[in-house]
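User: Okay, second chain of the day. Same drill as before: sequence in, structure tokens out.
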Amino acid sequence: MLSIGFVGAGNMAEAIVAGLIGRSSVETSTVACTDIVEARMDHMARVYGVRKVKDAHELASLCEVVVLAVKPGQVRDAVAGMKGAHADRLVVSIAAGVPLKALEAMLKPGSRIVRVMPNACCLVGQGASVMCATGACSEEDRAAVRRIFESVGMCIELDERHLDAVTALSGSGPAFCFVFLEALADGAVRSGLPRDLAYMLAGATLKGAAEMALRLQKHPGQLKDMVTSPGGTTIEGIAALEAGAFRSSVMEAVRAAWLKAREISEGW
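Assistant: Same drill. Structure tokens below.
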């Protein structure tokens, strides 16, 4: 594995580092990080044994792969901080909404850049990441990035035109799932279950349902029918969801997130 440096040592950077080290994909000596918050670098060094460096320029000088793990509004400063040290580096950006063309303009034409949209589930090793790359990237570059993000879940490559929809689905989706989880638990509390037990059962139910969908590879409607007996409790609950426009609300939530993601991307 190539040496990897993280510009930004926040939660997502930590999740990726934890995954890489936890799976023994890298040696701690080949990982470095820098952050404007000294305490974050100290934490990463103490917990994971990675090297902390003073700034983006030093990091880009040391590492073959540079991961821009900063907020979208901090990308320009992060790239500027690298100065001329990034010339032959593979640059990976996980900044939401920042397109490849904008990143290439900040670096230089012909740069090896991979844009990745990970999601919060990387924090527990169950991430769903989607990547796209500039034409200058080799298959070896793409494979290296896939390995990085497969250390914290799944990673697939798509054309960049799909990234706004991916942002709306897998990027924003965990929050939508948490709202549903909370609502499930509230319904159980309303029916008399203790709240801690309701949260535990609701979480296990969502986890199990997602695993069924991924493993069985059946249409969601078929899976729903497997649980829904004629005249039973489940069909009554589904009827209540339909009366409350549940499907339409979820579809509109994803569309609203997509429109916002597209607006952000077009702003570059």
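The two ends are 32 Å apart (CA to CA).

User: Thanks, on to the next one.
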